[in-house]
Amino acid sequence: MSDGHGPTPETPSGWSAEQPPPYSAPPASPWTAPGAQPQQQVPYGQPYRDAPPQQQPDPLGPQPPYPPHPHHSQHQQHPPHQPPAQGWGPHPAPGYGPHAPALRPGIIPLRPLGLGDILDGTIKLIRSNPKAVLGLSAVAALLAAVPLAIGQVFVLNSMSGILSDPGSVSSAESELTTIYGVAGQYVGSIISYAIQFVVVTLLTGVLTRILGRAVFGGNISAGESWRLVKGRVPALFGVVGLMAVIMLVPLIVFVGLIVALAAGASSSGAGWIALVSILFVILYLAYYLYFRTRFALASPAVVLEGRGPLDAMRRSWHLVSGDFWRCFGILLLTSLLVGLVASVLTVPFTLAGTMFGMFGAGSATTTVVSAVLITIGATLGSMFTYPFEAGVAGLLYADRRMRSEAFDLVLQTAAVEQQRQGWVHASADELWHPSNSAGS
């Protein structure tokens, strides 16, 4: 999905050859020597070979209009048509005629983005700095995958003992073993989610800072990114914590309601409980998707704008309000795409680990191999999911600012100055502050 433009001998490496003034060919001078043929002036962005032919001026100069005929004095006379002076005249209406390509110093063109630009920019973010992006994602995914894999191994070991010799295991022992395995899985899942809560929050902040510099074509190491982000870590945890509360409160209320209904309902009331549960699942899914879309841009606002948790969530709500359904569609499509790719990477290893755990007679070697395979599968899936979702959220944030605040003008001006200097200064990070928006 790359735009196909690479460095050329005429342009510095890393910069696009498609540049607006002052880097394009200078326009022809409107001044000419007496009697000389004027030069053709080509509108910016139109190839010279496609320049429209220019009418030659009359060497005698403009002629005065003829006097009206005495027999037709009652009719209004008009002077003959004169060609407009060079460099003046009517211009095509907006939206028509040739347009200059957008400046693209980094992973995205500096203009409002389409879906293809966002996905392409996310892939370029990963490719432009793979050591920082994929390395940090792999560490985060590994930390979250290990407890989950150990919990699953507990379940598989308990099942392998029952499946290998079901006649030698009493019902009480079988029930106790099953409870032991399920408890191990739940404990592993809880630990995994707690670790995931921490590492994914930190990873999102670091990747967002890398993205903020990559928009201008600059690279930043993982260590430097962490030094810039560590002051924003409490605010990031505040955003994630508030989001967790918003998502968990309806679940807690629902569970309490179901428990109360089940305690006071008769056997005939089980059908009503099931119906209420189905309706709740549908409504909760809509609730989850709505608030996830509304607050999807809060983390970029914390990192790039330096806002607090509540202020960042209000900022995200305001940015999404102008284009909710488009943001919803992009985020939903991204979740489906990364889920599909993660499944392709995860399922083979998870399936192999499950087979080893169930039919390996519960030996220590089989347990270790099973845990390693499940961990590898979960790590590969999450290593792709984390940076892609963070990249899409960050670029969607940039797109909403460009559309609602004319922020693309700020980015273009800064990129032209940085190209003139030949490097991307660290002060480019300050351009994301909302005070720099052209529409503010």
TrEMBL record:
Pfam families referenced in this protein's UniProt entry, alphabetically: DUF7847
Keywords: Membrane, Transmembrane, Transmembrane helix
InterPro entries registered for this protein in UniProt: ABC1_TM_sf, DUF7847
TM ranges: 133-155, 190-212, 233-263, 269-290, 324-351
Compositionally biased residues, Low complexity: 30-53, 76-102
UniProt membrane topology term: Multi-pass membrane protein
MF (Gene Ontology): ATP binding
Region feature Disordered, mapped onto this chain: 1-102
GO cellular component entries: plasma membrane
SUPFAM superfamilies listed in its UniProt record: ABC transporter transmembrane region (SSF90123)
Compartment(s): Cell membrane
DUF7847 domain ranges (all copies): 118-380
Origin superkingdom: Bacteria
Biased composition (Pro residues): 19-29, 54-68
Name this protein carries in UniProt: Glycerophosphoryl diester phosphodiesterase family protein
Naturally occurring in which organism (per UniProt): Nonomuraea fuscirosea
